[in-house]
Amino acid sequence: MRRIFLHVIFHLVTFDLMAQQDEQISFYQYNQVTFNPSYAGMRGRLSCAAISRFQWVNFSGAPSSQWLSIHSSILKNRIGIGTNVIRDQIGMRGRTGMNLHLAGGIHLNKSEQVRLGLSLGLDQFYIDLSDAIVNDQNDGLATSNFSTTRFNAGLGIYYGGKKFNFSFSIPRIFPQTTMSNQIDLNLYSPHYYLSGSREFEINARLQWRQSVLLKYVRNTPITVDINSTLIVKDQFHIGTLYRIHEAIGIFGLLRVKEQLNVGYNYDFPINGLFSYQKGTHEVMLQFELKEKTKGESEPKF
């Protein structure tokens, strides 16, 4: 299995083959700043979110990703600032990244606004073959251990109000390639995100939210996530996820206190990986550390 996985990993990073390289996330609708810098400051208060995702449980070398996001609004909510830190590991390949976000916009009316965002950051890419089983010591791939740090920048736009939003973003604009042992490696290709969400009021205690996220990178199929969420008294969220041709999921989020949300998501594969693993677990802690000011418009998601 280890040999097969090593072979797969290197084919994913070779220059001639493109693949989705951004980390998968199921709690995207609760922490959009992970892929769209224009969302920074949208909560109108200091917001912190920590998410851990353990993908394809029982599959050797399976992806594991962690995010830490902090953002807030300043200057009477005219400007949003924030940071996002991520660590991702899949087999012997890994990435650690950090981005700084700056966002601002204009209010079209009391609840709707348009925002633009910019992010600047660094990514460290690495491949460690110290535990690899190698049959041919002259194979260039077998000695391709390396680590490199690269600069990148991202852009995003957001339009929305209390009951809906639309956004488009490119978290990292610049493609990244390198050469190791005369082998061209594609470290990163730009990803494009398009998302939208709409909330419907069933009655005074129940709301229903429908959201969609599309992710695209050149020469690969579009990834589509469709979420349906029932919100009870704005205290408990329960929902389903369908990632087209890949997975189905169920998730729940509980507002423990006014400033603390706890969430859990479970994805189960519906593709060819069905027989080799036991699904994906994702947990989230979200803290709202500062009360919003009076009269401030705040999105509910």
- Number of domains as seen in the coordinates: 1
Portion of residues in helices? under 10%
Number of helices: 1
Strand content: over 45%
Helix/strand-derived class? Answer: mainly beta
> What number is the mean pLDDT?
84
- Could you state the order of secondary-structure elements as H and E? HEEEEEEEEEEEEEEEE
Using the CA coordinates, give the radius of gyration: 20 Å
Sheet bearing the most strands, described?
A: 14 strands, antiparallel, barrel
Question: How would you describe the overall organization of this protein?
Answer:
This protein has about 300 residues and is mainly beta. It is about 5% helix and about 55% strand. The chain has one domain (about 1-195, about 260-290). It has 1 helix and 16 strands. The strands form 2 sheets. It has a 14-stranded antiparallel β-barrel with strand order 1-2-3-4-5-6-7-10-11-12-13-14-15-16. The chain has a two-stranded antiparallel ribbon with strand order 8-9.
List keywords for this structure.
1 helix, two-stranded antiparallel sheet, 55% strand, 14-stranded antiparallel barrel, 301 residues
In short:
Helix content is 4%, strand content 55%.
Write the layout of secondary structure elements.
Blueprint (H helix, E strand, L loop, with lengths): L1 H12 L33 E8 L9 E11 L4 E12 L2 E15 L5 E15 L18 E15 L3 E7 L5 E5 L2 E6 L2 E11 L4 E12 L5 E10 L3 E8 L3 E11 L2 E10 L10 E9 L13
